[in-house]
Amino acid sequence: MDYLFEKKWQETLELASKNFGETLDYSAILMLIGLQELGIFDLKFKKDQKLELMHVAVCTLLEPYGYYEFEGRDVDGWPHFVKKENLPVLSPGDQEVLLKKAMMKYFGNEA
After folding, report:
1. pTM of the full predicted structure?
2. 7-24 pLDDT, tens per residue?
3. How many CA atoms lie within 13 A of 98 on its CB side?
4. Distance between CA atoms of 74 and 86, rounded to whole angstroms?
């Protein structure tokens, strides 16, 4: 990873952490983006629902890149997406970089 990318990622972590009042990491930010997109904050989520929140976040983050398209919400208010294009084959590290870049874009702090 290059210096500018890492610097912007650290700024994004600090921005998100400041907004939520605690130190956040990659997974916590994914969860918070999912919560933000769901728009329901006062529920206790089960383990499978937490995974669904992270999936909502991933779909939301990759939508501007053309991989997913927002389809609508179900009767419980959960957002649903349609896969528009397959992701390229990426190593786990490259997948994380792609999502970090998408998170930076989501928070308006692009590298």
Report:
1. 0.88
2. 999 999 998 888 878 888
3. 18
4. 24
